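=== RUN LOG ===
request id: a7f3
mode: sequence -> structure
chains: 1
length: 312
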Amino acid sequence: MDTSHILKPTATVSYSIFSKLKRFLAAAILADWVLGNAVNVFIQNLNQKGLLGLGSDFQASYMIWGETVWLNILHVLILAFTAGLFGFIFGYLSRRISLSDKIIFTTLYVFIRFLFLGLFSVVIDNFFPNYSANFNNLIGEAFFAISSSVFNATFVILSYIAMFASAIYFMKSGANVINDPYYNTDKSVNGTLLDIKWYHYFWLFIPISFYSQIILNLIYKIGHTIVTLIQNFKWTTIFGGSDGDKGNALDVAWGGLFFIVLIASLVIYLMDYLRKVLIGETDQHWAVKTLIAIGIGLVVPFLILWFTSLAG
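=== RESULT ===
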C-alpha cells in the first residue's frame, strides 16, 4: 500500500482573529450566499411555474413558506443543509476548532442577518431620519407576523435550531476530513479548499452560482423524466409504438433530458479545468490563465444565462 502521502507536510494552523474571520467569510459565502442562493432561485423558478402555489410575490428568502406544513419542513431541511455545508467548509478550512470558536462562529452565521439588520437600522436612523419610521414599522410588522402565529413562530424556531445544530455537527466532520492522514488534498497549503486558495472564492461565487442552477435543473429533469416515463409507459413503448397524441413515451421522457445532460457535462468539465488553472496544474502563461479564468468564470455563465433558461 502506498503511504507516501501520509508524510505530506501539513500547513501550520493560524489562530489569529483575521485568519478565523477570513475562513468564516469564505465558508459563509460559499454555503449560504452561493449554493444556498442557488437553491432559493431554483425554488422560486418552481413556484413561478405554478408547482408550489405560493403566489407571484413569493421570495425563497422568506422565513415562512406559505401555510403548508410540508413546504415549511422542506424549508427547514434546506436551511439545515446550507448551515451544515457552512459548518463543514469552515471546519475544513480551519483544520482545528475549539468549542468556543464553534459556538461563536455558528452564532454569527445563524444570526448575521439580524446583525446586518441592526446596523442598517442604525444607519437609517442617523443618516436618513425621514425613512426611519417607515423602516421600523416594516420591521415591526414582520416580527409581529411571526410572533402572532404559533405556526409561524414554531417553524422559525425550528429553522434556527436546525441551522445551529447542523453547523456545529458538520464543523467537526470538516475538520476530521482535512486531518485524515489518508486524505491527500489541501494538506500543504493552509486555507485552501480543493487546493484553491480561500480568496479566490470571493469571485468564484459567480460561476458557482450559475453552474449550480444547471446541476439543480439536471436533478429536477432526471426526476421529471422518470415520472413522465412511468406515466406514459405502455408495452407498445418498447417496440416504438405511439401512445396517442403524446407520441412514444421513451421519446417524450428522454427527449428533453439530452440537452441538459450535455450542458451539465460541459459545466462539470469547465469547472474542473478552471480548478486546474487556478492551482497551477496547467502549463500556460499567466495572461492565458487569466483569460481562461475570465472566460469560464464570467463569460460562459452569462452566455448560458442569456441564451438558455438553465441558469435561473
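=== NOTES ===
Confidence is low (pLDDT under 50) at residues 1-9, 237-245.
The first helix runs from residue 17 to 48.
=== END ===
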